[in-house]
Amino acid sequence: AQRVTQPEKLLSVFKGAPVELKCNYSYSGSPELFWYVQYSRQRLQLLLRHISRESIKGFTADLNKGETSFHLKKPFAQEEDSAMYYCALRWGFNKFYFGSGTKLNVKP
Amino acid sequence: EAQVTQNPRYLITVTGKKLTVTCSQNMNHEYMSWYRQDPGLGLRQIYYSMNVEVTDKGDVPEGYKVSRKEKRNFPLILESPSPNQTSLYFCASGGTYNSPLHFGNGTRLTVT
After folding, report:
1. CA distances in angstroms from A88 to A23, A78, B18, listed in the order given
2. Among A21, A90, B38, B91, which residue's beta carbon has the most beta carbons within 10 A?
3. Using a CB-CB distance cutoff of 8 angstroms, which residues of chain B are in contact with residue A43?
4. How close A70 comes to chain B (CA, Å)?
C-alpha cells in the first residue's frame, strides 16, 4: 500500500533559521510527489511538485528515491511561512495519498 | 474567480439523518475528489470522479455515496450518518495530468 509519513506534527524555528520538513513515502513505482500548504484561514494550495524542480517562496524539495524521501527545505524561514504543510503522493492519475501534516511555526 | 465551492461550511446533524455536502467548480475540470481529514491521519480520499458519470472508490468509501451528473458538481452524500463520520471534509478538482489539485474551503461535519 502507498503511504506518506510526516514524522513531525509541529516544527518551531526562529525567523532566519533553516527549516526542513520531513516526508517519507512507501511506493513500489515511480512516485509523483507534492507539497501542499494551508495558511491560516485559507484553503489548501499547491506549494511545489517534484517534477517541476522549482523553488517556490524560497522552498525546495528533492526527491531521493534511495531514501524514499521528499523533504521540504528553506534556508531562511520567514514568519509568513507559518502554516500547515502536507506532503502528498499521486498514484496513477486518480488517487492521492497525503501525510498527516506538519505545522510550521516561525517565531520572530 | 476560479475556485472550488463547498457548502455548507459547518453542519451539525444527528445519527441516521441523510445529508448532502455540495461541491462545485468553475474551472471545467474533469477530475474531482472528496477527502476527509482527521487528527493524526491527514487527508484520506473517499471517492473520486474522472468525468461525468464516472466515479470510483478511494481509500475510505464506506458510508458515503457520490454522484457526477454534471461536470461542475460532485456532491457527497451520507445516507445514514454515524458519529464516526464526524470530520473535516474537503472537495478538490484537477485538470490535466500535470495540473495541481484545487481545494474547497472545507466542511466541518459533526454527527451526534
Report:
1. 9, 23, 31
2. B91
3. 4, 103-106
4. 17
Q: What is the CA radius of gyration of chain A?
A: 13
Count the neighbouring beta carbons within 10 Å of the beta carbon of residue B90.
26
Q: How far apart are CA B46 and CA B25, in angstroms?
A: 18
Q: Does the distance separating the beta carbons of A43 and B104 come in below 8 Å?
A: yes
Here the cell at position A57 is 517562496
- How confident is the model at residue A1, as a pLDDT? 59
CA distance B58 to B48: 7
User: Are A17 and A108 contacting, i.e. CB atoms less than 8 angstroms apart?
Assistant: no
Q: pLDDT tens track of chain A, all 108 residues?
A: 568 999 999 999 999 999 999 999 998 777 789 999 999 888 899 999 887 777 889 999 988 888 899 999 999 999 999 999 999 998 877 888 899 999 999 999
Q: Which residues contact A91 (CB under 8 A, 6 or more apart)?
A: A2, A27, A29, A97
Looking at the complex, report in whole angstroms how far the Cα of residue A102 sits from the nearest Cα belonging to chain B: 10
- Closest Cα partner for A23 from A8, A35, A38, A6? A6
